[in-house]
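Please check these two lines:
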Amino acid sequence: MALVCLLVQASVAQESSSAQTSTNLALNKSASQSSTATDWGGNWYPSKGVDGIKTGNIYAGGFHTNNEVNPWWQVDLGAISQLTQVRIYNRLDCCSERSRTLQVLISDEGQNWRVVYSHNGSVFGGADGNYLDIKLNNEIARFIRVQLRETNWFHLDEVEVYGVLGVVEGEQSETNVVSKGIVIGYVVIDGDCSDDPISILTDGCDEGLPDIPVELTFTYIPPAYSGVTPVTIREITDENGRVEFKDVPAGSKFNVKTRVKTMEKELEGTMPDPAGEGVHLDFDFTCKGQLIGNTYYPCGSLKDMVCSPECQLYPM
């Protein structure tokens, strides 16, 4: 199952009778992690990531996993909450670059996760004032997970979460007008007819291929406060491989499926709140060859080369 990355802008949470804003909701809450490092004599339990201690020294406070695939740490806020901001303090005494592939995921029940932020690979700080400040658009969730997109040790000094604790969707402010956005899907059906990888990535490669219409099935479940019922829509791509699904309420969780011959692909996501420019999804059925050193070889140009699974679809 693929996850859609939604990078959203800042917004301010509204106060409600059940909670206050501008409070670190994660402080001293229940936390867990994929593993706990036992080397080097530290006590790097998951609770150290929400203990309020921010010095930059991992031995004074902070969590630390083993070296593993996609290590993660998460906190349970204890109730479904409206999230406006996640603030991440990096370790400063060593190895700050290990957090460069960090991403933030959220979940209502701790089982199904959606990505709300993926870091750009730069090194950030923490207690020195150069912490990572991630703005969220009133996302609704109970669990917040921080995870690496690679194999490595994972350690942070502190994670703070801001918003409104204990807000369910039906309790959001009556002044909160539900905005609507658009989900745009692109289906790319390209053969491998270039030895230039840059042109494949930027221009595509469809020489000799017919225009192939593809059906996309779009299902969204709007938040309860929107007053909109769940909807399933089926649309056919235009001559540019594009489909638009309009008037999707902000906060809606959606699923999009498509199939080209025997290969099915599926993407999931959430419409930001406010919806803003909406969400763009790419279904890539491009046949890709292999990059060996600095030279790209189209599929079939070398004996026993490894081609992408999409190549089995061609010729169309």
The chain has two domains: 2-168, 180-313.
